[in-house]
Design brief:
Helices cover 66% and strands 10% of the residues. Helix 6 runs antiparallel to helix 7. The longest helix is centred in the middle third of the chain and has 50 residues. Bound molecules: zinc ion.
């Protein structure tokens, strides 16, 4: 908060309204030394006088804190820009998650295949064989589950028929036929079954 800027703003708004420091002080039931302190940027009006001051000067509290009149249109633009930035952040996060899905899926699949290969071609005791099959399968199932969970929740699936973007239930993703991340599912909006692409 820029006290000097706020002070100048109070002074110019006061002059605009035709008040002197004395008449404004009188209207607020204060000494004119208080008004002078605010205008020199020594301190802010206390909360008890702030609202009344804004009423008298016909400014908003927001204007006062910013030391200038805030255009309603500007403040709308500012919040829209912030929303856009948030959307971009989510998109970036989803993109990274989908990369992670690929890594998790790849690692668990490869470790599964390697352990099956070893089981098939290497001489070993039965208990080692069983252990390898078990750990390979567990890594495949757990990895696959995590990869699919990421795919389900990062970004959206887009319906081919109506363009609806949505996040389906885990079960629908799990049971759907797929080619890569494109899955054959029923759109919750139009009810049609079609190939639905993953989009951010
Ligand atoms: Zn649809």
């Amino acid at each position: 908060m820029d006290l000097r800027k706020i002070g100048k703003f109070i002074a110019s708004s006061r002059a605009e309204k035709g008040y002197t420091q004395e008449t404004l002080a009188e209207a607020l039931d204060l000494s004119n030394r208080s008004i002078s302190k605010w205008e020199r940027g020594v301190c802010l009006p206390d909360s008890a006088h702030m609202i009344r001051l804004c009423e008298l000067l016909n400014i908003s509290i927001n204007d006062l804190f910013n030391g200038e009149r805030i255009n309603m249109k500007d403040s709308k633009e500012i919040s829209e820009r912030q929303l856009l930035e948030l959307a971009k952040l989510k998109e970036e996060k989803d993109r990274q998650l989908l990369k992670l899905e690929w890594v998790v899926g790849y690692v668990s699949t490869v470790s599964f295949l390697v352990s099956m290969f070893v089981v098939a071609y290497v001489e070993m005791d039965t208990w080692v064989r069983v252990l390898l099959i078990a750990t390979g399968s567990v890594s495949f199932i757990v990895g696959g589950h995590h990869a699919l969970k990421i795919e389900q929740t990062a970004g959206y699936y887009k319906c081919e028929k109506c363009g609806n973007k949505y996040i389906p239930k885990y079960k629908s993703v799990f049971l759907a036929k797929h080619m890569g991340r494109t899955r054959k599912m029923t759109c919750p909006k139009c009810g049609e079954k079609s190939w639905q692409k993953k989009v951010l």
